[in-house]
Write a structure and sequence with these properties.
9 helices, three-stranded parallel β-sheet, 15 strands, 2 domains, Dihydrodipicolinate Reductase, domain 2, globular, alpha/beta
């Protein structure tokens, strides 16, 4: 079941995504006996209430930022601990932890391949608000979203830092601010983008955030989160420097991890590019390597194949199919354009 505020929009999304039903009342969905898991991907000001109700009987996945205030987060944590004692599980959706290259980075740090962690640089750069005429959305309203770039995407940079290093933060100083005080009011929205009217409204969250922090070991961390970086679509980056090496990851090249080992031969030393797509890498035993490349291209192929717009009448073999036919004797392959 898919739940949304608008009955029409919820049903349209359910039809598109293959959900059996749609609903506008989340309480009704949470109370149904035939629903086992609740995925909370609503604006942040609703997370605490929905999670508290769902955790009484359902497993819960909640999107980040987990809550808009520390008090809400603490109440959700208590509810999750109580639920766990009854066999009910809860999780925050830090998806990037499960990227095979990130898992390998964590493994290499734990094995001591780069020595003791001495410094971390983490960034999350996007550009969907770089256009100053991009419309207002709930993500730009502090009362609804709780925070701006820091909570929306900076949370992922913070999480990857703690996940890869295995350390918690011990202190932090931050600076955040508006790069645009007002934006056009949206008439309609789809995803992160929409159409606007002549009215303008205030931006009440940070557009960009910078922070200097330190880990439990005392290692310094620099953090940056912005939705104002033209050309950066989903640049979640982290570089960890240790006493005997370093590693670097960029989600825009998600199959690759870079590793530097200081004890390498000086003449040929440098960052080594590791293509994390093989069966011995984390999670990859379940895939046909090269994993993500195949998974993404196969999903795209299925999407293309099942799109009604891609089904013209077959009038002749595809040019590539003719070549295959020539190379395969009497076998002929036919395909759509």
């Amino acid at each position: 079941m898919l739940v949304g505020r608008s009955a029409e929009a919820a049903q349209a999304a359910a039809d598109q995504l293959g959900w059996a039903e749609s609903e506008t009342d989340w309480r009704s969905a949470v109370n149904r006996e035939d629903i086992d898991v609740v995925d909370i991907c609503t604006p942040g000001n609703t997370h605490a209430e929905i999670a508290a109700a769902a955790l009484r009987r359902k497993h819960v996945l909640v999107e980040k930022p987990m809550a808009n205030t520390v008090a809400e987060a603490e109440s959700m944590a208590r509810a999750a601990q109580d639920a766990q004692s009854r066999g009910v599980q809860a999780m925050v959706g830090f998806t990037y932890r499960r990227v095979p290259a990130v898992q390998l980075a964590r493994q290499l740090v734990a094995e001591g391949r780069i020595g003791a962690v001495r410094q971390v640089r983490a960034q999350y750069l996007q550009d969907w608000l770089a256009d100053e005429n991009s419309p207002l959305s709930w993500r730009l309203d502090k009362e609804v979203a709780g925070s701006g770039a820091l909570g929306d995407i900076g949370a992922h940079a913070v999480d990857l830092t703690t996940f890869i290093t295995g350390q918690r933060f011990a202190g932090c100083l931050r600076d955040a601010g508006h790069l645009r005080e007002e934006r056009p009011v949206a008439e309609s929205f789809r995803g992160l983008h929409g159409t606007v009217n002549d009215q303008r409204g205030p931006v009440t969250v940070d557009d960009a955030a910078l922070a200097m922090a330190r880990l439990e070991s005392g290692a310094p961390v620099t953090l940056e989160a912005t939705r104002y970086a033209w050309g950066r679509k989903n640049a979640l980056r982290i570089e960890v420097s240790g006493t005997s090496g370093a590693l670097a990851f960029d989600f825009e090249d998600m199959n690759v991890l870079h590793l530097y080992e200081a004890n390498a031969d000086a003449v040929t030393s440098g960052f080594r590019r590791i293509l994390v797509t093989e069966p011995d890498h984390p999670y990859l035993e379940a895939w046909w390597p090269p994993a993500t490349v195949w998974a993404t291209s196969t999903a795209s192929r299925i999407r293309w194949w099942t799109s009604s717009a891609r089904w013209p009448a077959v009038s002749s073999p595809h040019p590539a199919s003719r070549t295959v036919s020539m190379c395969s004797g009497s076998w002929t392959q036919w395909s759509v354009r």
